[in-house]
Amino acid sequence: MTILLEAKNLSKHYSLARGETLRAVSDVSLAVHRGEALALVGESGCGKSTLGRTLIGLGAPSSGEVFFDGERISGLSDRALRRWRPRMQMVFQDSSSTFNPRRTIGDTLAEPMRIHGRAGIAERIRMLLEQVGLSSSVLSRYPHEFSGGQRQRLNIARALMLGPDLLVADEPTSALDVSVQAQIVNLLRDLRNSLGVACVFISHDLAVVRQMADRIAVMYLGRIVEEGDVLAVLEAPAHPYTRALLNAVPRPDRPLPPPLKGDVPSPIHPPQGCAFHTRCPLAQPRCSQERPELRPVGEGRTVACHYPLL
Amino acid sequence: MIRGFASRTGQMLLVIFGISVLVFAIFFATPGADPTARIAGRGASPQVVARIRAEYGFDRPLPVQYLKMMEKLFISRDLTSFVNHGQPVVPEVLQAAPVTLSLVLWAAFFWVSGSLVFGIASAVLRDSWVDRLLMVLGLVGLSIPVFWLGEVVNLVTQSRWHDTLLFRWVPPLGYVPFSQSPFGWAKALFLPSLTLAVAFIGLYARVLRSELLTAMGEDSIRTARAKGAGPVRVWLWHGLRLSWLSYVSLFGLDFAQLLGGGALLTEVVFALPGVGRLTYQALATLDLPLIMATVMYAAVFVVVANALVDGLYALLDPRIREGRHGG
Amino acid sequence: MEAEVLLKLHHLHLELSNGTALLEDVSLNVRRGDALGVVGESGSGKSLTAMSVMGLLPGLRASGSIRFEGRELLGLKDREWRRLRGAGMAMIFQDPMTAFLPVRSIGAQIDEQIRLHERVSRREARARTVALLGRMGVPDPEAAAKRYPHQLSGGLRQRAMIAMALSCGPALLIADEPTTALDVTVQAQILTLLCEIRDSGAGVMLITHDMGVVAQTCTHVAVVYSGLVVEQGPVAAVMARPLHPYTQALLEAIPPLDGPRPDALPTIPGRPSAPDARPEGCVFAPRCRFVRPDCAVRPALREVEEGRRVACVLYDA
Predict the structure, then answer these.
(1) Structural domain of residue C270, as residue ranges?
(2) Of C125, C140, C169, which marks where a domain is finished?
(3) Interface confidence (ipTM) of the complex
(4) Are A252 and C211 a contacting pair at CB < 8 A?
(5) pLDDT grade, residue C2 (50/70/90)?
(6) Which residue range or ranges hold the ABC transporter domain (chain A) (predicted)?
(7) Contact A85/A165 with Cβ under 8 angstroms?
(8) Whole-angstrom distance, CA of residue A18 vs CA of residue C247
(9) What are phi and psi of A304, to 5 degrees?
(10) Structural domains of chain A, ranges and CATH numbers in brackets
(11) C251 and A CB contact within 8 Å
């Protein structure tokens, strides 16, 4: 498999009033292979959405580089990026706000192809609608006439219009009910298999991620703390945070384990040393002084912890 | 806190400076027009024109002219009106200011209390006939030209029915200073300020009603109900707290522009010697120094009022105090 | 063993003024020391059920019966409702950011609730507020009481919300999606807190869409679909062996966190019918895989086993 998207030491910082800096993403390196699905997982404020957007050039990184298909796309101007846009598309959580309420579905779906001057629009729309499980009769209707699940299907169809190589989906199912969520999860899985499109899923839901992704990257306060094959990581987490996340998912089949204490610290003033040491049940004195680097544990897995569970 | 205040003051000064430059440029630096002739007024003698030219430095570069003008306005305050036979302009404005202030204060009192009552009443009774009636009345109030209303009020209270029991108390047109007779002051201003307030009551009641209704849909209002709070408490204590902001900002701007001469028509109709009427006279006689002075005076008021509104905002909403907005 | 029934909804029916029924038939019980999870998808009427218990649905016509501590609530005067709200029963909401008034401190808002129901001085109320915040696990409660909602983290805000709800010692706590807006690790903290409240003897009614949340915090569960309770029973039994096809489908649709990864998740075809277009018969029939001719008559919620009730023809004797 060849690498499609690669990020090297990517950081994204925001300057706030009073000279403070919000470190949304710090020193992240990752790679997405062709046709592969990588999940970015973490709690709110961990930087997963910012990372997802920075990866596809929505907002320039503060430092570091992004390569797409071997070429550097970070630092390019918006104009220069336009050439790359058709190859990377984004699906957002709130499907109701991505559609212009006053335009028909057909209009919105055709727009990306019109902008990029592609031919055969009607044919392509029909094909994609079939793929996402909707009939062509939706074309003359307006966004408000659809349920959340249908709108998310349309949203996915819109993202696929230009035949991208990479799809970044930010919480694509979290606004949906369980039964609808299952439909969308299945749909995304099918599309990935049939189209071979690589995906970056941004999600807080480990169960959904396990179902959709090949690999998982767990983020905490702007850094990746663990990465590896999704089944292996969720089977036996190496980082205490990954384990805590997994334990905190309410499941029908077992009682509630004792929760992590405290809140996620502010990304404006991240703790010294390992960012997780303030909440970690296994923290040692060393954890508050020295930040652990990502290092390999087992095949294709890395973890940033002085005392990994593996 | 102190830093914020200092930077705010700096901003204000900058804005006032900008306005003064602009006003100066419009009146004195417009190409092809001789400012000397304009200051001197129509039909001034050549001696006067020559004196003005020397006094204002119109034979020197523009920045010097600007500085001279500002010096005359703010420091030596001896800017004089030549149309009006050498009357100093600044004291004239300062004399008119209390009249306008009194008028606007009274009007503000009427329009705030009136719009509170009407706005809350129509929000609480939304979609009932009371609501519809109040909103139509508000629209009528909003659309009546203030000078016409003022003339009608004068016609009714000063001549037509002046001798009836209802209007016998109405004093003749004009102003009575507070220091002379507080009661006379109030009597003289009652009808003018009410007239001025009518349009604002209509506007503010509508704004308050819509803000209040939006606020009542908020989650926190549901919480207040779930706590067991009664309707009066929910509407007045929780609802109003949420809907104050746009009301206050609107108020600050209107209050300032009225103080700055926006009550011109009311002052003219009721013969109140305020800043508005002064502006009116200056315009009628093309008295340039006087116009300059009143415009600057108005600018200062608007800028100061803006700053006060911002301060009030911060008092009302802790999120703004910290420079954050919303969630 | 049979604890006292705290809240009893009996054939609760709720409709708009134009006659559209939002809740068709909701019957459920909450006993002291019980936590009842009311589960359903959006539009099922689970939140409406909670709001009607609190009497917070002006403009909707309710019929049937809501009995709280033996007293009929439907038809109560507004003044009497108010005395109950916040004192006898209290409610917490999904998003504690918007549920608090943004322009007043947390403490002032909790004080207000105490003083609405009890004649205590400001100082006493504040002392109680601080004690409550401390008990809810808010660090430095005295300082926290002086802060505004936006200055606290999501988890602390929800703790403050719970503190406010508990401030007058209610017998029933209604929680409407209390953890949906929170991160999982914080959600776990709040759920633990709810379990403690339940164990202290209050009745809890937890409205949620998450079967996992119900499983871990509740003793009983009522599954709501399209304005009706379709299944009810003890949590362990329902999770282990769901009876109603909808409950089964709902549980199957959750992606597994261990074991083999299925190629496709079981889904429920179609979507719930709108309130004004509900089928005459079983409301779930159009989406049900076991549908058969007698589903055309709406099945009643009947007890089929000890403590378990279900509305489905599959279990007709």
Answers:
(1) 5-88+170-256+265-315
(2) C169
(3) 0.86
(4) yes
(5) low
(6) 5-246
(7) no
(8) 53
(9) -110, 85
(10) 3-251+264-293 (3.40.50.300)
(11) yes
